[in-house]
Amino acid sequence: MIFMENYDIIIVGAGPAGLTAGMYAGRQNSKTLIIDRGFAGGLGLEVPLMQNYPGFDLISGMELIQKMKAQTENYCEIKENETIQSIEKTEDGFLLKTRTSPLLMSEESDEIREFKAKAIILATGASHRHLNVPGEAEFLGRGVAYCATCDGMFFIDRTVLMVGGGNSAAQEALYLKNLGCNVKLVHRRDQLRCEHHLQKALEEKEIEVIWNATVEEIKGDMVVESVRLNRNGQEEDYKTDGVFIAIGDDPSNEIAKELGIDLDEDGYIITDKRQATSVEHVYSAGDITGGVKQWVVACGEGAVAAISAYNDLNL
């Protein structure tokens, strides 16, 4: 069975950029829909604590997403767990076909829904980058994790390694330490890339950094028991109960490719200052556009994209 619905603006992705775009689009009296293949929030749900979001001295990503989602639902519809099967440009806009995601189901739904839109905003974000080493996939959920907020509680009073050297790795290492984990940071260089205040916090919490080291293999039987580290050219086995990985993200650009949108050399969507892409009436915002990957930047881009879409359709 196929259901058809018409909208002025459809936003793909319900992270900070998508939710903000939905709020701004809806407030301009545009019939707006947000579609996300998972739950609203995306990687924003995994941020343990933020101290740099305006208006909040301290807030978790999950709490902020809950507030943003509730606010956005006053102005537009949000469909979670909805996978886009196809998207195409038509003479009068865009046609999207979707199915319910199999996230909470044993298999994919057979029910197809079709949506028409005059404009599209892509806020598809990014996904966790993998180490691509032996044992990483095999031990996922059995000692290998990408989200300290999600899985940290399972490692209280146990030894874990946090792989990475940027803001996310530092924030998550601090979170694990505060939970009661014995955490060490593994970084491939001799200097961290995270902000100075995070480096200072790591020192104050006495979180050891294993410098100039890369993970070559994750080892164990039923669960993670150790990793093989290459440290300054020398390989050694290091005992650990868990490996948390925070080494960056890859752009979720499948839909952009399907629409033929111009991407940069790293696969991020290229936009102008109005957040417009190379395809008419398609805009983009948030981490999928690369640049400064900060929550407040994503929100700003989402607002600009929504205003630009509205203006192009109505002025």
TrEMBL record:
The keyword Transcription regulation does not apply. GO terms for molecular function: thioredoxin-disulfide reductase (NADPH) activity. PROSITE patterns: PYRIDINE_REDOX_2 (PS00573). SUPFAM superfamilies: FAD/NAD(P)-binding domain. Keywords: Disulfide bond, FAD, Flavoprotein, Oxidoreductase, Redox-active center. Its EC number is 1.8.1.9. It comes from the Archaea. Residues 7-302 form the FAD/NAD(P)-binding domain. This is Thioredoxin-disulfide reductase TrxB. It comes from Methanobrevibacter ruminantium (strain ATCC 35063 / DSM 1093 / JCM 13430 / OCM 146 / M1). The lineage of its organism: Archaea, Methanobacteriati, Methanobacteriota, Methanomada group, Methanobacteria.
